[in-house]
TrEMBL record:
Segments forming domain 2Fe-2S ferredoxin-type: 236-320
Organism whose genome encodes this protein: Muricoccus roseus
Keywords: 2Fe-2S, Dioxygenase, Flavoprotein, Iron, Iron-sulfur, Metal-binding, Oxidoreductase
Source taxon at top rank: Bacteria
Protein name: Phthalate 4,5-dioxygenase reductase subunit
Transmembrane segments: none
Gene3D superfamilies documented for this protein: 3.10.20.30, Nucleotide-binding domain of ferredoxin-NADP reductase (FNR) module (3.40.50.80), Translation factors (2.40.30.10)
Start and end residues of each FAD-binding FR-type domain: 9-111
Database matches in InterPro entries: 2Fe-2S_ferredoxin-like_sf, 2Fe-2S_ferredoxin-type, 2Fe2S_fd_BS, Beta-grasp_dom_sf, FAD-bd_FR_type, FNR_nucleotide-bd, MRET, Riboflavin_synthase-like_b-brl
CDD domains named in the record: fer2, PDR_like
C-alpha cells in the first residue's frame, strides 16, 4: 500500500545550505531547518516531495545517511526535455533560498532483515541506492553495487562510490548499446540477497527480465511513476471544465490538468504529481478519461480522476 502524503498545509520550509554540481547535468542540494531544528527521520529509500519554482511538486530521493537529523541531501538531474521542474529548480535556486518540502516518505523500503544485498543503479538512480548503502554499511552487511552510467563526467558521487571497494563496479557505456554491462552473470543463480534497482526504464525492464526466476519479494524497483507523466506520441489537447458552469480551459499536450488549473487560479491539493500517491484525486461529472495513475481501482475510475497525470478526450467536467 502506498504511503499517503501530507497535504500542502503540512509542508516544511527548509533553507538551501548548499547548491553545487554533483556531476555534469546533476545538481546537489543540501536542505536544513532555518532554525537549526532536527528534521523528521527518514529511512533508506525515502524521498521528498519538493515544490519547484513553477509551483509544481516533484519527488527527489534522499541520498545522505538516514541517521542524520540535521540535513536532507538530494541530487537533481537536469531534464531539458522534462516538464520544467528540474530546470527551474537548478537555475533559480541558490544557497540561502527557502524551499517547501514534504516530510520524507518511502515507497522503496529497504528490507533490513536481509543477510546481503545487490544494488543496481542507472544514472541518477544512484540517489536512493546511496542512502541504502550507507545504512547497510552501518550494519556491517555485505553488498554489491553495479552503478551504470554514460560517462565519468556524468557520474554523480563518482569518487565517493569508487572508494567503497572492490565489491563496487562502475561501468560507463558512452551511450553505445553494445557497451552495456552484462548483468546476467549477477542474477543467473538466485541467492539470499535482496535486489534493489533504480534507474531508466530500459535498465529496470532488463533487470526484471533477468530476475524472473528469483523470489518475487526479493526484487525491488523505484521510478516514481516516471512513465506515467511522460507525454505519449498520440496525446492530443483536450478541455477541462471546473464545474458545470465553469469556463472551459484547454489542456495542451505536455501539460497536466493540475498545472492548467493552477495557472488559472484554481490550485488543487497535490504532492507526488506522478500518479502514485492519491493526493490530487478529483471527482468528475462527465467526460471520457484516459486514466494513467497507479492508485485508483477500476470501480473508482468511474467517477474519479488523478489530475496530475491522467488526460481526457473532448471535454472533462470536474466537480469543483
Amino acid at each position: 500500500m502506498l504511503d499517503m502524503p501530507a497535504p500542502d498545509a503540512e509542508l516544511m520550509t527548509l533553507r538551501v545550505a548548499r547548491a553545487e554540481p554533483a556531476a555534469d547535468g546533476i545538481q546537489l542540494f543540501e536542505l536544513r531547518h532555518p532554525d537549526g531544528a532536527p528534521l523528521p527521520r527518514f529511512t533508506p529509500g525515502s524521498h521528498l516531495a519538493l515544490r519547484v519554482p513553477s509551483g509544481a511538486m516533484r519527488n527527489y530521493s534522499l541520498c545522505n545517511d538516514p541517521r542524520e537529523r540535521d540535513r536532507y541531501v538530494i541530487a537533481v538531474k537536469r531534464e531539458e526535455k522534462g516538464r520544467g521542474g528540474s530546470v527551474g529548480l537548478i537555475d533559480a535556486t541558490r544557497p540561502g533560498a527557502m524551499l517547501e518540502v514534504s516530510a520524507p516518505r518511502n515507497l522503496f523500503e529497504l528490507d533490513t532483515r536481509a543477510p546481503e544485498y545487490i544494488f543496481v543503479a542507472g544514472g541518477i538512480g544512484i540517489t536512493p541506492i546511496l542512502a541504502m548503502i550507507r545504512a547497510v554499511q552501518a550494519e556491517g552487511k555485505p553488498f554489491r553495487l553495479f552503478y551504470l552510467t554514460r560517462s565519468v563526467a556524468g557520474t554523480a558521487f563518482h569518487a565517493e562510490i569508487a572508494a567503497l571497494g572492490d565489491h563496487v563496479i562502475i561501468h560507463h557505456d558512452e551511450g553505445v548499446p553494445d557497451n552495456a554491462y552484462d548483468l546476467w552473470p549477477v542474477f543467473e543463480e538466485p541467492s539470499k540477497a535482496q535486489i534493489y534497482c533504480c534507474g531508466p526504464r530500459p535498465l529496470m525492464d532488463a533487470v526484471r527480465d533477468m530476475t524472473g526466476h528469483w523470489p518475487e519479494n526479493a526484487v525491488h524497483f523505484e521510478d516514481f511513476g516516471s512513465d506515467l507523466v511522460r507525454p505519449r506520441a498520440d496525446d492530443q489537447p483536450f478541455t477541462v471544465q471546473p464545474g458545470p458552469d465553469g469556463a472551459p480551459l484547454e489542456v495542451p499536450v505536455g501539460t497536466t490538468i493540475l498545472e492548467v488549473l493552477r495557472a488559472h487560479g484554481r490550485p488543487q491539493p497535490s504532492s507526488c504529481e506522478s500518479g502514485t500517491c492519491g493526493t490530487c484525486r478529483t471527482r468528475y461529472l462527465t467526460g471520457e478519461v484516459d486514466h494513467r495513475d497507479m492508485v485508483l481501482t477500476e470501480a473508482e475510475r468511474r467517477d474519479a480522476v488523478m489530475i496530475c497525470v491522467s488526460r481526457a478526450k473532448g471535454t472533462l467536467v470536474l466537480d469543483l
